[in-house]
Amino acid sequence: MAIVLGDNQYGKAETRLVRVDRSGEEHRIIDLNVTTTLAGDLARTHLTGDNTDVLPTDSQKNTVFAFAHDGVGEIEAFAVRLARHFVTTVPAVHRARVHIERYTWQRMSVGDEPAPHSFVRGSGTRTATVTCDGEHTTVVSGITDLVVLNSTGSEFWGYHKDRYTTLPETKDRILATAVDARWRHTGAGTADWAESHAEVVRHLLDAFATTHSLSLQQTLYAMGERVLRHRPEVAEIRLSLPNRHHFLVDLTPFDLDNPGEVFHAADRPYGLIEGTVLREDAPPAGLAWW
Ligand SMILES: O=c1[nH]c(=O)c2[nH]c(=O)[nH]c2[nH]1
């Protein structure tokens, strides 16, 4: 019986890079978590331990820091630079993926003045995943952990019921989720990554806030559809929405009414609603989701 090496990849996971821009009166910070993943002709090291083809993961980490020396810029562009570097300079490497998370920091205010070098962590983490095979480069942008809540404007009723169904139907509930969205760009050369990202997030939030929801599934589709209608540079968006259930507490044992005011915010289990919304004529995804 022959035994062979199957798919393999390797890289440095979660290089934490913080860069301080001191060029102005006010400092600016970029706080990143960078993961590099390489694949290619790497049979030799697996089969014989000959490491000729292997760029150490330590070198990959060093590359991330060295590339930050002259500025990081937008994370999509930084990831493109790194991915192309690995594919074009390491002979055995034919595919590189660079995944970056950028934590949100907002400038503090002291009194009415913006603080020059003090920051507070904001909500939502921006992400970018770039894949390069030497010929094609794909860019996926995203946002994770963007926690949102509507205190009304959400119903859930008319669902399939069986002997195990106890959930009461509701015409008014809290709808809350932590948005995890990733969207694939039609090209790798969007002019303004920052503007594109801010606008996609704005449309996601607008759709969440203005959709009268009959299910989180319906809200998911509305969020994706709105992004695609307004942002031509986006070909496809994948959303993962945990349903952060808020259950109305029964206060009748205490002779108290509860007209939609007191809720138990349960953390688990939670419904997990996931879906993809895309253009019918979206170009092939290639390695985008690799
Ligand atoms: O919006 C919802 N979708 C569901 O599929 C579901 N299932 C459930 O128990 N509550 C909800 N809410």
Automatic annotation (TrEMBL):
Keywords of the record: Oxidoreductase, Purine metabolism
Pathway(s) the chain acts in: Purine metabolism; urate degradation; (S)-allantoin from urate: step 1/3
UniProt binding sites for O2: T57, N243
Protein name from the UniProt record: Uricase
Binding, 5-hydroxyisourate: T57, F156, R173, Q217, N243
Transmembrane portions of the chain: none
GO BP annotation list: purine nucleobase metabolic process; urate catabolic process
Entry's family note: Belongs to the uricase family.
Catalytic activity field: urate + O2 + H2O = 5-hydroxyisourate + H2O2
GO molecular function, one term: urate oxidase activity
Active site: K12 (charge relay system), T57 (charge relay system), H245 (charge relay system)
Protein function: Catalyzes the oxidation of uric acid to 5-hydroxyisourate, which is further processed to form (S)-allantoin.
Keyword GTP-binding tagged: no
Binding site residues for urate: T57, D58, F156, R173, Q217, N243
Pfam families attached to this UniProt entry: Uricase
EC numbers: 1.7.3.3
InterPro entries, per the entry: Uricase (IPR002042)
